[in-house]
Amino acid sequence: MLAGQRLSLLLIAWSLVFISSFTSPSMAEVTVITDSDKRTLVFKKPFTRIISLYPAHTRNLMDLGATDAIIATGRSDDQLPNLAKVHFRDDPERLIALRPDLVLIRPMISRSYPQLIKRLQQVNIQVASLQPSGIDELLSYWTTLGKLTGKEQESMGLISLFSQRRHDLQQQLAAVPETQRKRVYFEAIHKRMKTFAPQSMAMFVLETAGGINMAADAPQVRSTNIAAYSKERILAKADQIDVFLAQQGRMNPVTIEEIRNEAGFAMIKAVRENQIFLIDEKLVSRPTMSLLDAAAIIMEILYPEATDRGAST
Predict the structure, then answer these.
(1) Does the domain spanning 3-14+26-161 belong to CATH 3.40.50.1980?
(2) Chain-centre distance for alpha carbon 128
(3) What is the pLDDT of residues 204-259, one digit of tens each?
(4) Which of 30, 140, 144, 178 is most buried (CB neighbours < 10 A)?
(5) Does domain 178-312 have CATH number 3.30.2310.20?
(6) What distance, in Å, lies between the first and last C-alpha atoms of the chain?
(7) DSSP 8-class letter at 220
(8) Which residues fall within 8 angstroms of residue 153, CB to CB, at 6 or more apart?
């Protein structure tokens, strides 16, 4: 099934779930969700004092209109600078002192700091660990955030907007013949020669932008969004890589010069032709509406003529 058809079916499915939540008497009394760590949360009313320890959670809550429910964010999260800043490495008592009714985390925190989760639960603070592993789970993630905050209708609006914006990008891309699509190597971590797993958010972005993933055969590293791809495998496809794209940020603090000067990379067609581009890793790695901002940026890199036509229509 094509990605577009799959997304359409998922939108229908989530619409039915949304409708049923208003027609079932039991749902009006108690809401039950299961988070990414298979932890079950049962609650009777939306949460109104939320600590968000992942910037993507913060962004999505803001997009849902639940900004007022956020009382603190992580130290590296600069989206709401006037709020209290905490860290999952802090003494749990510091978080408890803020009197949250919900702490939003992601599985990485659960695995590394289980003592934090245990202490919060001891004082009856709910913890939800959420992180969609692929685009198919993004819709359910937004729906879950809507349930947690009482913004279910807004979550459906976000899903609808995402679908419409994706459709608009597809319409622009339709102007580019299949035979002219660019072949792209998308770097995740330069020092370790890692790319993105084929089912990752970043590869959804690339495919939405019309890029052909030259590392579609890359093996996923554990259950992460990262995939292994050695320099030898990259260079084996050197003449086929039209564009060398790399995320840039804390995970991959790389420069175009570093890529250009990497031993052996002069063999790569994209390097020879100065087709090396960087994109902010926050746009391609986080499960937010910014994924489509990233797709639009990459599409403009790959097919500037098509995006110019789309902007003028």
Answers:
(1) yes
(2) 17
(3) 999 999 999 999 999 998 878 999 999 999 999 999 999 999 999 999 999 999 99
(4) 144
(5) no
(6) 30
(7) B
(8) 18, 146
